[in-house]
Amino acid sequence: MNLVxxxxxxxxxxxxxxxxxxxxxxDSSYLALVLLAGxxxxxxxxxxxxxxxxxxxxxxxxxxxxxxxxxxxxxxYSAIQIPVATAGxxxxxxxxxxxxxxxxxxxxxxxxxxxxxxxAGTDFIFVSGAATxxxxxxxxxxxPGSYTxxxxxxxxxxxxxxxx
Length: 164
Hints:
By secondary structure, the protein is α+β, with helices and mostly antiparallel strands. It has two domains: 1-39; 41-163, Jelly Rolls (Sandwich), CATH 2.60.120. 17% of the residues lie in helices and 44% in strands. The chain is built from two helices and 13 strands, in the order H-H-E-E-E-E-E-E-E-E-E-E-E-E-E. The strands form two sheets. Strands 1, 2, 4, 5, 7, 8, 10 and 12 form an eight-stranded mixed β-sheet that branches. The chain has a five-stranded antiparallel β-sheet with strand order 3-13-6-11-9, with no helix packed on it. Strand 4 and strand 5 form a beta hairpin. Helix 1 runs antiparallel to helix 2 (28-37). The chain is globular and about 35 Å long. It starts with a helix and ends with a strand.
């Protein structure tokens, strides 16, 4: 019975949001609601000038591996938000299918592609693997602060991330 109530509430919320769109082609609000209704956090990401909500997770130190969920735009995108990284904090990617690409940004959401990129070799390093991951990779943060990792896949990649 609980599931039926949740589905009903989601349908009502989606209907209300659809009726309140500011423009006919304004689907980002609708997408944000669908992601939230599915239990996902979101991060506002601009891959090509237009800001779009993508599935996001907040990584905490010594957390369990988190399965990445992707929002399809021109590729699949996911955001990993790391509110606090100390020098030496490590993150591990494990890929179970396809290929994942990662870009590391300083700070939190919203993110615009190419703006506020963290410096590879200074802010962080890949201890193993690289920014294109087919099996596994380990990243270490050298400079304390908050970071957001944008993960993308063009071939329906699947994987997990764990912060240690």
